[in-house]
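Priority: medium. Attachment 1 of 2:
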């Protein structure tokens, strides 16, 4: 039912028209059978007009089927695009911790597999309408031949469909489980692609991964899928069998009970045999509908999980930055593990133009702090103040626009997006970063395919510099740079940002360059401590 609501929401006119056209093609199909019956049983002198009617019905079948399919292909693709768009909008609007806990594998499986299941079920909709119409008209035609026989056929078909639906309900339990298991398979397939270097470098690891991780996940999914599909297949055959039982009773039992003319019996058997095709078509379509319903439920569950949209930002330029303060900010990851990491309470003040370095051991909480500072995480307690005002849910999206960021695992889009930099500025940063050959200045395309890790970071810095926000946050940017480029970063780039009035927060382990900063803070066990206040001393590189 929800599937049809999705279809109707996309375009109820196209849905209705394609359904009606499908039904019309079904009637024309049945018209062909009636004409064949007439041609077989009527006197030839009475049926001179039959060839013309037959040709007309053929043309009608062709036109209605092609038009209905054309409309439905467009509609189902529009529905798929709409579903994907809605899901993408929800993903973009959802808070980062929610997305991190859902996991990218689940989001991808919903965006690709579930949407495809829905599209393929919808694409078969005109054929299902045509089949339903053939069935209905066929039963009416049977009723004109003999009412009791039509009643018997309806009874047998109803038993068949009911048995099939009952089987489908049993199958559903396993098919739903298979869909859940599919998330794990997608997760492991992603792990295989991401970890291909680690797998290639260790044959034992590769074997362990394939036999202990990937295959068991796949087998679990396959097991549920096979049981579900077997039950479905059995229900399909069982449902279909009832129609043949009906034909058997008609042929062998009915003539014993009542007198039936050969013409009626021929017309009857011919029509019923013909009706097995549309019935088969509908029974064959129901599993696809079933998978689509499971996919709709999955998308809904996922949608509910991520449906906590944040307030959206205005598209105007980022607001001015005069001060930023964190007071007693704490944050704890939402994890099943009781010992999950907790940061804070953290107190921190940032002023325009200052360069702040944050140091600290692995896992001490530096990146978590940077995510809190940049508004990607919401503090559990404490306040973040921007220009003297509390940052609440309403302002958070606007607040995030204050920052140009380069995170450790940051993503590079293959083109400059949302950036309105002059060619001169682009050239300036390209030459500082030594990346002239990696960007097409005319099109703004970034050649992200063949980059080393260091080059990847340099392009990310280029994007951040062109973003040109008041505060720059670098998470271990220089960690993957050669010594020469480390020097350029600390002695040329950071001072240039400082001269242009930018505030810089750099997470770094490069204590050689600490003198570049105005303040150095250290994070240890989730707490922030001042290491050095160099504001009064002259800024120089080590
Ligand atoms: N999404 C998450 N869910 C649960 N725990 C997390 C998550 N991300 C990080 N952690 C935990 O929080 C702690 C701090 O992580 P964080 O990334 O902030 O450390 P870090 O100081 O930046 O470390 P490094 O120098 O190694 O990058 C770690 O113990 C990590 O395991």
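Attachment 2 of 2:
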């Amino acid at each position: 039912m929800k599937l049809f609501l999705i279809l109707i929401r996309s375009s109820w006119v196209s849905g209705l028209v394609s359904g009606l056209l499908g039904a019309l093609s079904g009637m024309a199909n049945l018209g062909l059978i009636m004409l064949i019956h007439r041609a077989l049983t009527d006197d030839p002198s009475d049926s001179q007009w039959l060839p013309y009617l037959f040709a007309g019905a053929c043309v009608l079948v062709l036109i209605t089927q092609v038009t209905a399919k054309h409309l439905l292909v467009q509609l189902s693709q529009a529905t798929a695009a709409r579903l994907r768009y809605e899901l993408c909008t929800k993903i973009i609007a959802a808070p980062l911790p929610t997305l991190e806990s859902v996991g990218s594998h689940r989001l991808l499986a919903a965006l690709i597999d579930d949407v495809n299941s829905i599209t393929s079920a919808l694409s078969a909709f005109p054929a299902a309408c045509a089949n339903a119409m053939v069935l209905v008209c066929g039963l009416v035609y049977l009723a004109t031949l003999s009412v009791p026989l039509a009643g018997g056929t309806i009874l047998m078909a109803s038993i068949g469909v009911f048995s099939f639906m009952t089987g489908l309900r049993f199958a559903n339990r396993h098919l739903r489980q298979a869909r859940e298991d599919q998330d794990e398979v997608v997760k492991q397939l992603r792990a295989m692609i991401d970890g291909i270097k680690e797998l290639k470098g260790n044959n034992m690891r590769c074997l362990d991964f394939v036999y202990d991780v990937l295959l068991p996940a796949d087998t679990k999914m396959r097991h549920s899928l096979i049981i579900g599909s077997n039950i479905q297949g059995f229900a399909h055959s069982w449902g279909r069998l009832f129609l043949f039982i009906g034909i058997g009773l008609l042929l062998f039992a009915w003539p014993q009970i009542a007198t039936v003319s050969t013409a009626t019996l021929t017309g009857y058997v011919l029509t019923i045999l013909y009706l097995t095709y549309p019935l088969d078509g509908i029974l064959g379509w129901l599993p696809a509908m079933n998978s689509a319903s499971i996919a709709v439920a999955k998308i809904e569950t996922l949608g509910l999980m991520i449906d906590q949209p944040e307030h959206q930002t205005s598209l105007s330029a980022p607001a001015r930055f005069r001060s930023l303060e964190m007071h007693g900010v704490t944050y704890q990851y939402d994890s099943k593990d009781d010992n999950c990491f907790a940061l804070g309470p953290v107190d921190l003040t940032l002023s325009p133009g200052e360069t702040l370095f944050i140091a600290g051991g692995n896992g001490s909480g530096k990146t978590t702090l940077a995510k809190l500072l940049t508004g990607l995480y919401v503090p559990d307690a404490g306040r973040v103040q921007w220009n003297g005002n509390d940052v609440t849910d309403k302002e958070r999206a606007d607040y995030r626009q204050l920052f140009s960021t380069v995170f450790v695992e940051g993503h590079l889009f293959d083109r400059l997006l949302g950036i309105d930099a002059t060619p001169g500025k682009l050239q300036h940063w390209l030459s500082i970063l030594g990346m002239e050959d990696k960007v097409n200045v005319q099109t703004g395309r970034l050649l992200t395919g063949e980059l080393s890790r260091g080059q990847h970071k340099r392009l990310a810095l280029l994007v951040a510099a062109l973003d040109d926000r008041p505060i720059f946050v670098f998470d271990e940017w220089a960690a993957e740079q050669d010594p020469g480029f480390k020097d350029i970063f600390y002695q040329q780039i950071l001072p240039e940002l400082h001269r242009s009035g930018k505030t810089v927060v750099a997470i770094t382990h490069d204590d050689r360059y600490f003198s570049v900063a105005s303040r150095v803070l250290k994070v240890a066990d989730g707490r922030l401590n001042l290491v050095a206040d160099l504001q009064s001393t002259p800024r120089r590189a080590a």
